Amino acid sequence: MKSHYSLVIIGSGPAGLAAATLAADHGLDVALLDEQNQPGGQIFRNMESMPASRVEILGGDYQRGQELVEAFRASDAHYFPETRVWSLNTQGEMGLIEQGMARMISADKVLIANGAMERPVPFPGWTLPGVMYAGAGQILFKQAGLVPMDGVVLAGSGPLLLLLAWQYIRAGVTIQAILDTAPLTNLLRALPHLPRALMAHHYITKGLEYQNEIKRAGVPIIKGISSLEAQGEMSLERVSYRKGLQRQQIETQCLLTHFGVIPHVYLSRAAGLKHHWDHHQQCLRPVSDEWGETSSRTLFIAGDGGGIGGARSAEHAGRLAAFQILYQQEMLTKQQRNQLAKSDRQWMREDLHIRPFLERLFHLPPALLNRLPDNTIVCRCEEITAGEIRREIASGHDHSNQVKFITRSGMGACQGRQCSQAVAQIVADQSNQVISSQSLYRVRPPVASLSLGQLASLFPEEQE
Ligand SMILES: Cc1cc2nc3c(=O)[nH]c(=O)nc-3n(C[C@H](O)[C@H](O)[C@H](O)COP(=O)(O)OP(=O)(O)OC[C@H]3O[C@@H](n4cnc5c(N)ncnc54)[C@H](O)[C@@H]3O)c2cc1C
Question: What pLDDT, on a 0 to 100 scale, did the predictor assign at position 464?
Fold first, then answer.
């Protein structure tokens, strides 16, 4: 690895792969870094080692990734797998961990294409062994061919939950039930956006196909459930929920939950980029334009890391950012940029027509986010409960940073990834504030765990 590149891209999902291939094909000196050991990101995870039988089960969307990965491999872009970025600034300098050693590199331009993470939503019992995110279940399947024992329960809402159910059924897994937490009124809120959504009707067709397949397999989808709880002594024994006025339960050893995905904003926040709170996506996202330009001239963003748009939009956004970078590096004229980017701009706009509909259909009810019972653990690293957080807010600490300082919530190994949003939402609810870009814990580098030994490896001459 060199110490400087014209363009460094962080993340090898659809956005990063498309950008790296295009920029390298136009002669730019590109490095693509990713903490995974293969290119593909979340959707195309493990693409190069996936047995054909599993590719078949994962479906057509997964298969599409092969083309992207092959084009990237055929390009002159330099690829650095198992390389995690732990700091980034607006001068284009970044800290990495590569093969266990820390190092600093820099670039004229940096494209953040680090994707999304599952939205962490605490609920009673979510820390019990046997309870995992649906995305983690899918990662186990993509990466290692592992599926849960028969009798798994899926709960939450969002397209990924349906996709996973569909994939599990094709893999022969018996699903006891899907507990849908989306309020029934969501459909009414989504309907006015249906005509626009029909312009990207393949998503609706696909969603209906998943639902039909799930029904044909005899899996009950229990809609409009609330007060989800995972219960058990040492590990999960049953899932309990409210349907109407009745509390019901299902015995199971495995519960997979999903409450949508949110942008990974740790690097963009650590770099000091401007962000805003997106009320429809219910998350923080970096401020950026159609070309991926952010509040810094050096840093660009594309894909789900800049706001949730899905894999196809990520691919177009990656290419648009690459066109803009090539233009700024004087490798394309404005006219060439506009001409070459025409179809990506058009496809991306069309693809995004589905979003307002989906955002309303899968909008999470506020009660799920901020009305957790007092004994629910919110910060799972430091085991801080909603009650402890509320006590501190009641005594006048009405910002999540203050709550963090007093209770240690957000100071554990995950550095607040799992509780930052939940704490901000509880604070906003209890102190009657509107949640904003300022509500979450402050983020400072290192944004990924870094041992003192690794940090010391930055200064080999001083190690004696
Ligand atoms: C767990 C999970 C599973 C998903 N599965 C599907 C699916 O099956 N189908 C679907 O349509 N959508 C899926 N999605 C949504 C999906 O991620 C996107 O729509 C699409 O993959 C976004 O592409 P992207 O290029 O923006 O980011 P991603 O595909 O997420 O790629 C981002 C890449 O950045 C890397 N990265 C992140 N931070 C760092 C860092 N600090 N240093 C180095 N590398 C870093 C990650 O390892 C990842 O490879 C999933 C999302 C999640 C969270």
Answer: 58
pLDDT at 463: 61
Cα 41 to averaged position of ligand 1 atoms, centre (Å): 5
| pLDDT > 90 in the chain, percent | 92
Tell me if 90 sits within 8 A of 108, measured CB to CB. Answer: no
If one looks up domain 4-117+262-332 in CATH, what number appears?
Answer: 3.50.50.60
The CA 191 to ligand 1 mean position distance, Å, reads 29
Please check the confidence at residue 460 and state whether its pLDDT lies above 80.
no
Fold equal for 4-117+262-332 and 120-259: yes
The domain defined by 372-430 folds into Arc Repressor Mutant, subunit A (1.10.10)
How does pLDDT run across 1-48, given as a tens digit for each residue?
Answer: 999 999 999 999 999 999 999 999 999 999 999 999 999 999 999 999
CA of 260 to the centre of ligand 1 (A): 13
Q: For the chain, give every domain's residue range.
A: 4-117+262-332, 120-259, 372-430
* pLDDT digit string, tens, across residues 326-340: 999 999 999 999 999
Q: Which of 1, 17, 43, 54 is the best mutation target for the ligand 1 pocket, counting ligand atoms within 8 Å of the beta carbon and taking the most?
A: 43
113 lines ligand 1 (CB under 6 A): yes
Q: Is the CB of 135 under 6 A from ligand 1?
A: yes
| CATH fold of 120-259 | FAD/NAD(P)-binding domain (3.50.50)
Instruction: Tell me the best of 33, 42, 266 to mutate to test the pocket of ligand 1, counting ligand atoms within 8 Å of each CB and taking the most.
Output: 42
